[in-house]
Design goal:
Spore Coat Polysaccharide Biosynthesis Protein SpsA, Chain A, 10 helices, alpha/beta, elongated, about 15% strand, two-stranded antiparallel ribbon, 2 domains
Length: about 325
């Protein structure tokens, strides 16, 4: 059976762009029979985007237009589109005409080389260098280093995902930009392909430096989900162990300062130091208590992890494929 493709486009206040955007995607779908479905998601636009889009798409059975009750954010809009999409491959893209739909067949061809995710790379960006390009370069380097999934452009919305990959990921916050990293937990193969990036000609950009803090916080979350989501005691327990160890060292120093004459008094004579006036005495209790709290958090996390997986019958692994010895249909002939 031929591979089917769904295109998902989140939109926010893009009334000036939707007609032209739909026209480009329609022409591509007419020329490429793999594209069977187009899902537009209006993320609470207040400028008539939904009405203009419905007018443009009227009569095209391939198109579904979803309208969210309010502005939930790009991750939520993409999640709504992914849930509705039925294609074997799902291709998200921005609705501002900066992504070029003509690049989609190239992404699909790359995906068919054996990859599970193909990410677009805006190698020659048409954005302001100081406020958009430079922060993006720094963020991409940081994300690649922390998640160990090396990509030049995490922020490019134009990507191609196999359905089984994207359907297994729940999106929250600003997590949409981290999908390749989250998918890496499944052991997927990720490729990157340079794509065309066009300057914005109408409408207003929804991105800016204000999102930097949210991206950093989500990056911390992603790192935890990738490395420790099934073993939280490993991160919290380690911090707790170091805290208790440091507290014990402080305690030993306190005792030594009480027993040994290593403190010079006001009369110039070497003497011991009183424990109650020693700051290391207070630090002993502080670090020990912090260490115990971290260990307790790790144990509570372990309980929650087990509740999450066992109550929903979830698995802590993902099977790529399987083969039964009695089934000869999948065995290549010699």
């Amino acid at each position: 059976m031929d591979q089917t493709v769904s295109i998902v486009v989140p939109l926010l206040d893009e009334v000036e762009n939707v007609a032209a955007l739909y026209g480009e995607i329609r022409d591509l779908a007419d020329a490429d029979e793999r594209i069977r479905e187009i899902v537009f998601v209006d993320d609470g636009s207040a400028d008539g985007t939904y009405d203009r889009l419905c007018e443009a798409c009227a009569g095209d059975a391939r198109v579904t237009v979803l309208r969210l009750r309010r502005n939930f954010g790009q991750s939520a809009a993409l999640a709504a589109g992914f849930d509705r999409a039925n294609g074997d491959v799902i291709v998200p893209m921005d609705g501002d005409l900066q992504n070029d739909p003509a690049d989609i067949p190239r992404l699909l061809d790359k995906l068919n080389e054996g990859y599970d995710v193909v990410s677009g790379w805006r190698k020659r960006r048409k954005d302001a260098w100081l406020t958009r390009t430079l922060p993006s370069m720094i963020a991409n380097a940081l994300i690649s280093r922390i998640t160990s999934v090396k990509l030049h452009d995490y922020g490019c919305s134009l990507k191609a995902y196999r359905k089984e990959v994207i359907k297994g990921i729940n999106l929250y916050g600003e997590m949409h930009r981290f999908i390749p990293s989250l998918a890496s937990w499944m052991g997927v193969r990720v490729a990157e392909l340079p794509v065309n990036h066009r300057p914005r000609t109408a409408g207003r950009s929804k991105y800016g430096l204000g999102k930097t803090i949210r991206v950093v916080l989500d990056l911390i979350n992603v790192k935890f989900l990738i490395s420790y989501s099934t073993r939280p005691i490993q991160v919290f327990g380690k911090l707790g162990f170091y805290g208790v160890l440091l507290g014990l060292l402080m305690g030993v120093m306190t005792v030594l300062m009480k027993v040994l004459p290593i403190w010079k008094g006001e009369d110039g004579q070497w003497t011991t130091m009183d424990m109650t006036g020693n700051p290391f005495f207070l630090l002993t209790f502080l670090f020990v208590m912090i260490g115990i709290q971290f260990i307790s958090i790790g144990l509570l996390g372990e309980i929650n992890v087990r509740t999450y997986y066992e109550s929903q019958n979830k698995r802590i692994y993902v099977i790529r494929e399987s083969f039964e010895g009695g089934d000869t249909s999948g065995v290549p002939s010699s």
